[in-house]
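Holo model, adenosine monophosphate. Inputs:
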Amino acid sequence: MTFATLGLIEPLLRALETLGYQTPTPVQAQAIPAVLAGRDLMAAAQTGTGKTAGFAVPLLQLLMMEGPKVAANSARALILCPTRELAEQVHASVAEYAQNLPLTTYAVYGGVSINPQMMKLRKGVDILVATPGRLIDLFRQNALKLNQLQTLVLDEADRMLDLGFSEELANIYRMLPKKRQTLLFSATFSDEIRTLAGQMLNDPLSIEVSPRNVAANTVKQWVVPVDKKRKPELFVHLMRKGRWKQVLVFAKTRNGVDALVDKLQGLGINADGIHGDKPQATRQRALDRFKSSEVQILVATDVAARGLDIEDLPLVVNFDLPIVAEDYIHRIGRTGRAGNTGEAISLVCADEVNMLSAIEMLTRQTLTRHMEQDFEPEHRVPDTDASGQVVKKPKKPKKPKASGGGGKRNLGKWVDSGDVAPAEPSIKPVRKVPVFNTGPRKKK
Ligand code: AMP
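Output:
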């Protein structure tokens, strides 16, 4: 199959060729014809599957073929994203796909001054990418009208709900024309998302290009058990031993990010951090420098977990496990993208055993453990498996081992999660806490 056989117009085919896209990815093969046919869409796609082009390319074609010229202070298509970084990234992709078309595109988000955004919207834009809070502000200040809106895209819809945007989404829903096309994309699909889809979508076509809630199987994943207080030391040890060149590291809290960055910088390691307390410009600069390899280690809270596309990122390290198990999938989805292979290493302490268990249950795999010599934990991490069982063994005094404790296990086995049968949970999964260190909720 080629992009031409999907019925795309020549200027789009040329743009895709320039970008080196030769064959449509599975989500593109399904989404492009459906969007062109005017269908509503409910698409569950893994991160890094090419979903942005899956919705943006046919959307551009529809805007070329149908509808009036955009009016002042209006948008003909709206793409809603959960975070500023994702909005910037989606906008950059849309602009690339639109390079040969006379259509205008723009991104608006919070954390930066609203005035330039209001000015820019005066002439209207064909495609507006927005985070929910700023979109509502612009609408309320009459800088944006939505009566011309033909298409709404909800990107990373589950993340928007996790970030507590359900009220904003309900408000935006009321601002939209009833007759429109709606495309909902989400890496994971919870029942809450299905309810939202029921309200917002009209007879949607469901697309599911990967098994539900399964992490990319191009990512080699393993866990290193360690005591909490020794995590920074272990990180530095693994970094040196593995000669890590470019690593995205996830920490749970803003303080955790700052502390690790300080420690690494103190050792002369080229590290930077991003989290919701940092101004947008600083966050973007750190990300850009990381992408261009000027920064070797980027430490982030989950604000960076979604959608960020960093070319050929070889390694993601979970310095802390995420509180919400689904975030594990999004975090490790930063690597192994578009068919490349990647690695994801999680440093896990005894306190995190329930999170580990929830992740294994969700991804239907038991993560391989690798005990690092001289870092064997005093507080043992109980055994877990994909059934959600945490096996509590009586504590035995720890004997130092020469190498590879915890039984003989292969390091970083390739996980083909598809062949592990889903199991019924027998413990409560980790509570879903919709609290993150991100900025989009903050009102200026
Ligand atoms: P996305 O899932 O939209 O963030 O895309 C992940 C990465 O795959 C991005 O770097 C895209 O540029 C790239 N990509 C998307 N579609 C294709 C394709 N058909 N062929 C090659 N690369 C692609």
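Residues 4-208 form a domain with the Rossmann fold fold (CATH 3.40.50.300). The two ends are 48 Å apart (CA to CA).
Archived with the compound record.
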